[in-house]
Protein: Saccharopine dehydrogenase NADP binding domain-containing protein
Organism: Roseovarius spongiae
Amino acid sequence: MKTDVLITGTGMFAGRIALDIAATAKEPVNVVIAGRNEDRLSWLETAGNARAAMFATPARFRTERIDLLGEGASDSLLKKFRPGVVVQAASIQTSSVISDKGSRWTTLVAEGGLSATAIFQALISSRMAAAISATAPGTPLINCSFPDVVNGMITAMGHEVLCGTGNIAILSNVFDGAPGRPEGELKILAQYQCLAPWRRRPQDRDGPAPRVFIDDAEHADPFATFRNCRLTPEPAIEVSGASGVTLILALVAGRAWRGHAPGPNGLPGGYPVALDGGGLSLDLPLGVTEAEAVAWNDAFERANGLTISDGRATFHGRLAELLTAENFAHADGFDVADLEEVCEEMLALRERLLSTEA
């Protein structure tokens, strides 16, 4: 059977994507979900096919049990299923780290930012990207693991990545669906750090705001205009996981699509984008250049986070200070080609900090 979409991972994010494909597909789509959790795989296959029957959609689901960290796992999946689109949603760092508390690791992430987890988020995604380059070049890769930063690491390694899901697409869809929002076409620029204020009560919001445009005119005060929009303290999977579904189905059907996505073609942060002919391009508001949009997004990580330049990853700001204080060997940065070795050392740091109360 033809495989239109390969989803790697069995967590809540992967499940949201699969089950929303089941409920919304208009054209036939065959999905394979791959991971090592046998019980979860069984349920996602059952629930996916049940939802397809429930909503009378032409979506069909199968599963493949495999350890995604195993040697050659990505190559094996690509050779066996030859998918039209790969959606990589597996990670060795759970997304719940944004709301977990109690250890020195969660404190480091809270103070230093999510880029503390970028190395972990990049591990499986970079392996899949490398496998696509070697085995199935041209296959679109949607990386769901911290795409604002990780996608730049993937392209710096010499591989292609179409984009990610979530992050900017959380805000764009929340704003677009807000009751009473200003009429007109909405486009925004938003790096993932722009999400944090929207997890707080309106009266407690400060920090970085997205740039919001209505019919190409920049909106002065997003905090006031979208005051009643609020995200959950936990990962907003009901929106973030779902946000990639319309793009995935458009890729399968060969249709044009417009929306928002993080990390398009490896760029830092998030942008309005357009899909045409299988390729993704920026769909910026009039008067905003690509250089301006990229520089605006990149500035967030340069102030505090992780940037990629000339094949090297560099930590900045408070995150760099915290990693230095913990004697992390690569606090001053590392070559992305050394990701596997650096990840082993970062895992040792995480284990040490998780075992110590904050």
User: Anything to note?
Assistant: The mean pLDDT is 95. The radius of gyration is 20 Å. The chain has 13 helices and 14 strands. The longest strand covers residues 29-35.
